[in-house]
Amino acid sequence: MTTRIAIIGGGTGGLCLAQGLRKAGVDVSVHERSRTRTERLQGYRVHINPHGSAALHECLPPELWERFLATTGTTSGAFTFVTERLKELMVIDSELTWSPDPASNHHSVSRISLHQVLSAGLDGVLHHGKEFAGYRREGEVVVCEFADGSTVEADLVIGADGANSRVREQFLPGAVRVDTEIVAIAGKHPLTEEARKRLPARLTDGPSMVIPRTGAGLFSAPHELNGALSVNDETADYDPVLFDNTASYLMWAFAADNRRYPDHLSSLDGEALRTLVLDLIDGWDPAFKELVAGSPAGSVSRLPIFTSKPVEPWPTGNITLLGDAIHSMTPFRGIGANTALRDAQLLCRNLVAARETGAVRPAIADYEQRMRDYGFAAVRDSERSARRFVSRNRAARTMARGMFRFFQAVPPLKRKVFSDLGDS
């Protein structure tokens, strides 16, 4: 049986699925609205957890899996929780989360590098300049229509077109995303030898979570490139700071609820956003002010935080959804991309198995049921973490800081409580 599969959207989940299906010899095409590969470059790092690593290992051809590993960051320091005065609350040593098997380990990777790897080798499969306009049904066939007037016929359509999915909008109009009223401001500090001398090792060697007494927080993480395959596209028209893919950097993100920000926040450029964060962290340890002040204005961006709401089960058909198109979540646990990769792995595995049996609908139904379970559980966990991160409840934050200190003082309890971070 031959099933023509059309994936709408060339992001992380959609491309991973396409790689897996193509590796298995399935007829698949990807339709991406950007006109060129570099239009959708994103300039920050992404944390790949064991779920994401397993998905990439299973779906990518061996040579692309090796290329992915060659582009990951080399930093493997401990994850540290600190106060705004850089006082240690708790340290999660890398031994708690490290695995000798790369396919079940944690990785830091540039979003640019990840997209380059996932796009590689998809000539004739990945089609750019295809802005999805809608679909219509002709019997059992779904006809996808694009803004340029072209169409493609498919036996199965997979909406992987991100948080503002047009496929979802038509297919499940009741599925909505809501504004959390939390806003993050993120930037990148070049991780040079000079920066290493100025900044404390606690920030440059591994991820840090800052938990101040007031209702805000800051996360930072180094991304140290090994230089093997991390290259820019010289033909691309992008900001040379935000989208530089050849130099190591220290990424940071400050977040608070929108009551902490001025009303005109959306109109501020990178320089003004950087100044605003410096004002908001006044009184913090000078290292944090150095981190923010040393980030080029072109690397500083405003990131409003939205989250999806759970969706009731729908009748399984020949249209389904993947990744942010169905369960978009806040970035506060770093699991959005990994959940999309998990979707891709599961759906690919089910569809390849169904090729032998012809039971495509049951394969999709199984995927949808399992995806809704773990996907919306991740959404809930992510939103809960976001609310705690920006909580204005001083007593609760004081209690949290005390809890971290307690875990740090009792290592066996810390190992028991945080041993599951391998799946986070």
From TrEMBL:
Q: Which UniProt keywords apply?
A: FAD, Flavoprotein, Monooxygenase, Oxidoreductase
Q: Which domain of life is it from?
A: Bacteria
What span is annotated as the signal peptide, if there is one? none
Q: Which Pfam families match?
A: FAD_binding_3
Q: Which residue spans adopt a coiled-coil conformation according to this UniProt entry?
A: none
Q: Does the keyword Oxidoreductase apply?
A: yes
Q: From the UniProt record, which GO molecular function terms apply?
A: FAD binding; monooxygenase activity
The record places domain FAD-binding at 3-171, 311-380
Q: Which PANTHER family match?
A: FAD-BINDING DOMAIN-CONTAINING PROTEIN, MONOOXYGENASE, FAD-BINDING
This one is known as: FAD-binding monooxygenase
